[in-house]
Amino acid sequence: ATTRLVPEPGKPSNGAIFRSDDHGATWAKVDLKEVTGKVGRMTLAVAESTVDTDATRIYVQAADPRGRAQADILRSDDGGTTFVPMGVNASSKALNANPVKPNLELMGGQGFYNHMIAVDPKNPDNVIIGGNLAVATSNDGGKSWALVSDWRPLA
Question: Which of 31, 34, 36, 30 is nearest to 14 (CA)?
Fold first, then answer.
């Protein structure tokens, strides 16, 4: 059966993900464990090269419940059955942090609106995230991040 993931229908900012293993006939809420109640609006990205495997990788960029800051990036390696928070937010630093962008909180107060996450279709370790004119990339599955831009390209 095809697995499908969606935010809770009609409630895009409540911090819940629902999963179906029967083409959408039934849905079950995914237990987000330690981030339950700490996330709001979310954007999902699936690593295409892992679809239809036992290790389908999914990344989630999540805003805080108020829709302001980036709460975290979550990662699943089991098709969305479980998600692990990766600590990608204001408490973490990019490999090339600078005075203009000292951390990885990329939403800049617009977590209700500015979300961007994409995964390389051939390599599930290559991820790009963005927010309010800020972009960061990871080539190790989200363990480390490098800033690409913050209002302007970074050298």
Answer: 36
- Give dist(CA 78, CA 56) in Å, integer: 5
CA–CA separation, 135 vs 129, rounded Å?
A: 6
Token pair 């999914």 in the structure block, residue = 58
- Residue that is written with structure tokens 């699936």 in the block: 46
Summarize pLDDT for 15-24 with one digit per residue, the tens.
Answer: 788 888 888 8
Q: Which residue has the tokens 């909180």?
A: 105
Contact 50, 57 (CB under 8 A): yes
Per residue in 81-91, pLDDT tens?
Answer: 999 999 999 99
Q: Which residues pair with 6 in a beta bridge?
A: 18
3-state secondary structure of 6: strand
For residue 155, what are the contacts with CB-CB under 8 A and spacing of at least 6? none
